[in-house]
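does this look right to u?? adenosine monophosphate version
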Amino acid sequence: MRIILLGPPGSGKGTQAQLLVQRYGIVQLSTGEMLRAAVAAGTPVGLKAKEIMAGGGLVPDDVVVGIISDRIDQPDAKKGFILDGFPRTVPQAEALDDLLKQKHLKLDGVIELRVNESALLSRVETRVAQMRERGEEVRLDDTPEVLTKRLASYRSQTEPLIHYYSERRKLSTVDGMMAIDEVTRAIHRLLLALGAVEPKTNARSAAKAAPVKKGAKKAAKAAKTAKKPAKKAKKAAKKPAKAAKKAAKKAVKKAAKKTVKKAAKKGAKKAPKKVTKRRAKR
Ligand code: AMP
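got this back:
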């Protein structure tokens, strides 16, 4: 499975990507995470990205395309991946199309998480509070000021991707305002529809999602009626056997009667002979 999760900061891409990773055993390729790691490690890419990220801008396309291309080549990405935060511009999307073509890989689909902008700030505030509670380091760009800039970058540079992928019939949209597990279920249904996952991955929820169709009911009825003639045929097959038994009984009876009659006749014939003998004696 190879999919892209598309949505503004705070739309839940990261959360859903992690849940998909657990469920399907594929990897999450988050350019944001990779860039943060590069910044922390002080690599040349990290040094380039640090200021841009802190200001809520976008890192140059060639930098992110380079790191994604290398990451896709790693063995753990062979089973499939979820792109989270990439592509973020139309040139990045075009570069991704090219590199997937070169690597003979197919993209199953793009899932857009649609959310109300008004909810995004409070979502990011909640994320920051939870990270602090867990004692985790809070992201430098998770402040209301930087978030406003990140949202502006999303609107002007990333939102055109919705049109880009919908034109290529790759886009599906999920209501990202639903509860986390509802969003996960909606994504799972989409992945099933796209043929990106096997139905057996979650047979129970798939059965729940698909109501019994009329055709299936008809087929069940037809199967029941088909059993009836079979029963009749069994009965009919038994009938000749019964009839044969009856006929055999009758024949035995008849034969017995005949022998009795014959015997009686014989007896009757013999008797007069005896009489004649006796008479003769007399
Ligand atoms: P994220 O974790 O996806 O919110 O990304 C954090 C920051 O990393 C963004 O605000 C950008 O500065 C940078 N970044 C992540 N992915 C990309 C990308 N595909 N293109 C450009 N910049 C990116």
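The first strand starts at residue 2 and ends at 6. idk if thats expected tbh
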